[in-house]
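$ run holo --ligand "magnesium ion" --emit tokens
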Amino acid sequence: MATVIQNMTPIAEPVSRFVAKTRSLLINGKWVSAASGKTFPTYNPATGEILAHVAEGDREDIDRAVAAARAAFDKGPWRHITASERGRLVWKLGDLLEQHAEEFAQLESLDQGKPVGLARVVDVPVSVDQLRYYAGWATKIEGNTIPISARGKFLAYTLREPIGVVGQIIPWNFPLIMATLKLAPALAAGCTVVLKPAEQTPLTALMLGELIQEVGFPEGVVNIVTGYGETAGAALAAHPKVDKIAFTGSTEVGKLIVHAAAGNLKKVSLELGGKSPNIVFDDAEIDSAIPGAANAIFFNQGQVCCAGSRLYVADKQFDRVVDGVSQLASKIRIGPGMETASQMGPLVSEEQLNRVCGYLESGFSEGAKAVVGGAREGDRGYFVQPTVLVDTNETMKVVREEIFGPVVTVMPFSDLDDLVAKANSTEYGLAAAVWTPDIKKAHRVASELRAGTVWLNCYGVLDSAMPFGGYKQSGWGREMGHQMLDLYTETKSVCALIS
Ligand code: NAI
Ligand code: MG
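-- output --
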């Protein structure tokens, strides 16, 4: 691991301007202060210094935002706008985002910590693609005609109608992607939205709010309330006038959301944690499996819900894979996200730094060994060394719980059935991967893994068109793909006597 402090990307003028001003809430088409007048700081995780101040929304602001979204849905022009026009607006937002790509990449890097190069090739283009993908769906949300068997002559058909006012609570690992992935299908389906970004990373959602204003969505269609989870987030989840909550974040908070939603039985979709098994068989093409396994855990500092955090390697290949992944880890250049040479940035927050270091300590106390890494890097910012842990087993906390940092546990296996049982012995079920050229074995294991996505000879490939979500405690529902539209629509059956 080398630390780099050399060539900082010069901060674009619109980004400096954006962070210099205290940012407001977007409610009913206007930028407003929090009702309390309070603000909170968001930090640059590479330095721990304050990056910007943001309005601290709370219950009263959520009330105002929900009222605006309610009015826009129930009486506003939005419900009479054609599907084609909705699609055009969502598409236009994608175009504007693309035009401002560099600003968004820099702001994401400064606020979240990730390398700006990563934000340029992943976060921003993926967000643009999501907007375009769902823009296309606006005109294709169709019902069916149903050949019912009741006696008499009936015409029966289904309509797919927008679910209503949607609350969306998003995390900090991919702040912009999470915002567009939640907004795009909701808007394409004709819903109105109150979006609550994570308190660690509120900035790109607020900058997106400026583009939303520029596109010309009617007032109240998109409201953005920044604030803390326990206050603004909880108020949104419990709000009696909200029809649906979409949440991405921890499994723990996912359960709180379910409880909060019970009051008015609002619909809930959840994308939660994971502890995904990444399985390398003895016949795997090792030259692609090794970088694949490294990337599966070190990408985005390991702060990825579908990270390949449990690496299972066939006995015969174990030493070679551990060695290969450790060598790659040791070459990763750690540094501030705005440093052009950085390949790995800091974790998002001091809290996350402490959480991940706490897991490392727990692993060592239970007998795990670090082949490489195993500690914080430096004493400024929230950097953690990419870490490969061996001598681990399924009873250890580091193998059972989501670490959400650049830490992989590697375990050997010999027997296939035993492997499948171990891979499935987790309360999560978000993703898994299998590395082998043997197609029978690959598909057999894919069918036996209890996970929402299984990658064969690749890892982490996601696409706007491909459903993603969890079995077991990794969540409810599927995002991405046309299935995601189901989360934002109700089905109405219409049955007419026609003779
Ligand atoms: P979190 O679940 O607390 O935060 C996610 C979002 O939920 C944020 O917007 C937060 O403000 C909001 N929130 C928090 N408490 C809430 C409440 N009571 N009611 C409504 N909204 C609430 O996640 P946190 O604490 O930042 O990270 C903890 C762990 O969660 C991570 O270490 C990781 O394991 C997991 N996580 C998983 C993510 C995923 O992509 N599935 C993303 C972020 C975290
Ligand atoms: Mg939390």
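-- notes --
The first helix runs from residue 13 to 20.
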